Amino acid sequence: MPRLFRAGRRAALLLSACATPAAAQPQSSAASVTLSELSVVGAAATDAPSGETRGSLSVPSVDRQRAALAGTVGSVAFVDAATLQDRYANTLRDVLKDVPGVYVQERYGQELRLSVRGSGIARAFHLRGIELLQDGIPLNLADGSGDFYQVDPLALRSVEVYKGGNALTFGATTLGGAVNVVTPTAYTALAPNILRVDGGSFGTIREQAQMSRIDGPLDVLVNATLTNSDGFRAHEAQATKNFNVNIGYRIAPDIETRFYLGTYLTDQKLPGTLTLGQSLTTPTLANPAAITGNQSRKVETERIANRTSFLLDVGKLDVDTWAIHKSLYHPIFQAIDQDGWTYGISPHWAGTFDLGGFRDDVVLGLRAFAGQNSALQFVNVRGQRGAQTLNSLQSASSVEAYGENRFWFLPDVALMTGAKAFSSNRTFSDKGGLPGNPRPRFADVTYEGLNPKVGLLWQPRPDIQVFGDVVRSRDVPDFSDLVQQNLLSTTFVPLRAQRAWTYEAGARGRFGRLAFDVTLYRSDLRDELINFATNPGLNIPAATFNTPRSVHQGVEAAVTLDLVRDLAGTGDGVSLTQIWTHNDFRFVGDPVFGNNRIAGIPADVLRTVLTYRHPSGFHVAPSLDWVPQGAFADHANTLRVPGYALLGVEAGIDFADGVALFVDARNLTNARYVSDIAVVANAAATAGGAGALAAFYPGSGRSVFGGIRAAF
Question: Which domain holds residue 546?
Answer without folding.
Answer: 2-401+417-711
